Amino acid sequence: MTNPLCKLPVTTILILFLLMGNFNPAHAQLTDKMKTILPAGTIAYGNIPYANDTSHFHLLDVYLPANTSKPLPVVIWIHGGAWQLNDKYADMGYMKNTVKGFLDSGYALVSIDYRYSTTAIFPAQVQDCNQAIQFLYEHASTYKLDKNKFALIGFSAGGHLASLLGLSGNNNITDFYAGGKKPSFKINTVLDFYGPSDFVAMSTREKTTEPHSPESVLLGASLLERPDLAKFASPVTYVDKNDPPFLIVQGEKDESVPFTQSVLLNSYLKLAGVKNELMIVSGAPHYGPMFDTEAIRAKVFYFLRTYIH
Fold first, then answer.
1. In what order do the strands lie in the sheet with 43-49?
2. Domain boundary assignment for the chain
3. Structure pTM?
4. Gyration radius (Cα) of the chain, Å
5. CA-based nearest residue to 56, from 68, 42, 46
6. Least enclosed by CB within 10 Å: which of 23, 105, 141, 234?
7. What are residue 153's DSSP bridge partners?
8. Could you read off the pLDDT of 67-121 as tens digits, one per residue?
9. Around 197, how many Cα atoms within 13 Å sit in the side-chain half-sphere?
10. CATH assignment of 4-20+34-198+234-308, among 3.30.200.20, 3.30.430.20, 3.40.50.1820, 3.40.50.150
11. Cβ atoms of residues 210 and 224 within 8 Å
12. For residue 9, what is the enclosing H or E element?
């Protein structure tokens, strides 16, 4: 008799085993690109479905240091791309030393995909990120993760999402949760690399209010036409005294996200009494290897040692 599972797609089979609760994940082969970034011996679990569906947007990767034997603190990587480009491997190419440092320093690294704004408008992206992190929380033992030690790192659009996740966690924003149910996890610290923080403030820039700008596509409307949506999607809206510590890194010459966005976030956090630090990188553009320097890495690992170790 033919096993009915043989006729199902691999992703569907993974979902079924996860639902049964006895899934023992197999190690994945690293891609050639990731082999050049991650330390030798890195344990990888690739393309794990986190939303009980077969969408290629709802996948994540888990990377563990070689010979991992106990639950590890987790750094969750949220890629950039104007909310409509790239995937869970993005931004790693110019942050190679930082990525390698996570594994060498004993952290688990998780990189997640989420729906593009061209597929589903906001808040679909933050719903997906919340669902992915809740999956990690619920399956922490399977992947040797410490579910009580989660840090977020995000770049550009991913920095916006990381900030939004970290700051809205104290609020019950049901629209931010898949199925409307508040997640169980807690974010211990956020590493925000040049993410937009205040869309209302960005509405003064002509190019961000054009119909086809990334911000307009994300919200499904112009920032000027729907300031209510702009505020709803802005991380600074949710700042309060109980938020996690933030490291904010921004390029002085950023042509896509004005450095004032990071200054505003820093100011809001200081006013609320939230521990945070702002690093403006002299002469740096929107992204690139200027953000993978020894000085920035030192600050990144200081935050990780202090808040999730």
1. 43-49, 59-64, 108-112, 72-78, 145-155, 189-193, 246-251, 276-281
2. 4-20+34-198+234-308
3. 0.92
4. 19
5. 46
6. 141
7. 77, 191
8. 999 999 999 999 999 999 999 999 999 999 999 999 999 999 999 999 999 999 9
9. 25
10. 3.40.50.1820
11. no
12. none
Tracing tokens 């931004």 back to the chain, one arrives at 91
- Note the residue count of the chain: 309
146: three-class secondary structure by DSSP:
strand
Spatial distance between the Cα atoms of 155 and 25, rounded to a whole number of angstroms: 29
176-197: b (≥16 Cβ within 10 Å) or e = bbbeeeebebebbbbbbbbbbb
Tokens 């719903």 belong to 127
Strands 108-112 and 145-155 turn out to be unpaired
What is the pLDDT, as a whole number, of residue 194?
98
Question: Within 10 A of 83 (CB to CB), how many other CB atoms are there?
Answer: 26
Six token digits for residue 165? 């996740």
> Which tokens go with 262?
């990071």
